[in-house]
Design goal:
mainly alpha; 2 strands
């Protein structure tokens, strides 16, 4: 059985988001995150960074499996045209941007905390899906992915990932600050 690339990508995104949210809401991970990083923007950056790196790794492995015909995976095709995963990343980033503009997830209620976390996770996924094909942006060639030019995508991922990591994993994880905390 050959699974559609769109279905595989959708399943990957949904399962990753569900796993992250379950870990944050059903285990002590959410409480630990709240205690160790009391500042809401840094908690959001942390979640986005973790999801960014996991999504990048997962998508790279998925593309590698498709290229090497391993497993039931295939390209996302619509009307005979290959839809690159940067398209899904851009759509996800647009949805997250809209949610941010509408100030979704900025309150302290449990629903708002959930939405804040979902938005952060979705941002990390969208950024990884988009930046993984950064070389395609520059070269407008699908062949750039596994070539020497594809290194540009890796560089973009490392630079953006470092930016997220600096915002998230800097001082807040090294030293615990005292004072009031806000919900994430």
């Amino acid at each position: 059985m050959h699974l559609s690339g769109a279905l595989i990508l959708l399943l990957f995104i949904v399962l990753l988001a569900m796993t992250m949210l379950i870990l944050l809401h059903r285990t002590s991970a959410g409480r630990i995150l709240h205690e160790r990083i009391p500042d809401r923007p840094q908690r959001r950056l942390f979640l986005a960074a973790v999801t960014f790196f996991i999504t990048f790794l997962g998508v790279r492995l998925l593309v590698w499996a498709i290229v090497h015909h391993i497993g039931p995976f295939g390209w996302v095709m619509m009307g005979g045209r290959h839809i690159h995963h940067l398209v899904w990343g851009i759509l996800l980033l647009l949805a997250v941007g809209y949610a941010e503009l509408a100030e979704v997830g900025n309150g302290a209620s449990p629903t708002s905390i959930f939405m804040s976390r979902l938005i952060s996770i979705s941002f990390g996924m969208g950024a990884a899906l988009t930046l993984d094909e950064f070389a395609l942006w520059l070269n407008l060639s699908a062949d750039a992915y596994w070539t020497r030019q594809g290194r540009e995508s890796i560089d973009a991922v490392i630079l953006f990932g470092a930016l997220l990591a600096i915002g998230a994993w800097g001082a807040p994880l090294i030293t615990k600050r005292s004072g009031t905390t806000t919900a994430s």
